[in-house]
Design brief:
Length: about 240
């Protein structure tokens, strides 16, 4: 293939893929793909567990969810959140065996805007947990852990629309998972438990990040750059990407 024909083919490929599935205004999408960021405040956090023991040894459960509103639509494929174990006089150690963590995205229900229909649910077995080096300022001084997960099916969040994210540990009475408090970019979160069987709003935030998938345009440009590099004039080496 002549070089001029080859360059024309590359230009057509770039133009064909130049419209992304989503786009972000300046200041929203970071270089690392993060579109929503609430950093941890290591002063505590609510129970986020389907089976735990209170300070009197009675079984209880609680779900918590934090609200999300983006100013530009995004395809979310990666999550990160911060949490710790223990509280109420319970063990501050991670579970001794397997651990299942569940993630849900909800729509906002009509009327009060609290969590409504489940839009996506995925469970993760034995996610890696990374000790951040920080200690949470609650009884027992538990360690702070960072959790990260890739969704098997990304979820597209529309702009200027309220959604809710829920994270919790499933069915392990031997540990006591808590989702850490965060500096709320959007004020407030919601909880539901065995004492309060309906979602209730509270003025606090939780610690998590949402990240996008690679932008199609960027991927196309990288592919084309690699092709061009490998078809460079004689005398230049193709080093790849």
């Amino acid at each position: 293939m002549k070089r001029a024909d080859f360059l024309l083919l590359v230009a057509v490929l770039v133009l064909t893929l130049s419209v992304p599935a989503w786009a972000s205004p300046a200041g929203l999408l970071r270089d690392d793909g993060v579109v929503f960021d609430q950093q941890p405040d290591p002063a505590g956090g609510p129970l986020a567990d389907t089976l735990a023991l209170d300070e009197f040894g009675f079984e209880r459960w609680q779900q918590v969810a934090d609200n999300i509103r983006l100013i530009q639509a995004a395809s979310i494929g990666h999550l990160a959140w911060w949490g710790f174990y223990g509280g109420d006089g319970q063990s501050h150690d991670p579970p001794p065996g397997s651990e299942t963590l569940r993630v849900r995205f909800y729509s906002a229900r009509p009327g009060d805007g609290l969590p409504g229909d489940i839009l996506l649910e995925e469970s993760f077995l034995n996610l890696p947990r990374t000790f951040t080096g920080r200690i949470v300022s609650v009884g027992g001084l538990p360690r702070e852990y960072l959790f990260e997960a890739d969704l098997s099916t990304p979820i597209v969040l529309d702009a200027n629309t309220v959604y809710w994210l829920e994270v919790l540990q499933v069915g392990d009475v031997n540990s006591h998972f808590r989702w850490e408090d965060g500096a709320g970019r959007v004020s407030g979160c919601a909880f539901i438990n065995d004492y309060t069987p309906s979602w209730t709003f509270v003025y606090s935030g939780l610690a998590f990040e949402l990240s996008t998938l690679p932008e199609p345009t960027s991927m196309a440009v990288l592919m084309c750059a690699g092709i061009l590099a490998c078809h460079a004039p004689k005398g230049r080496r193709c080093r790849g990407l």
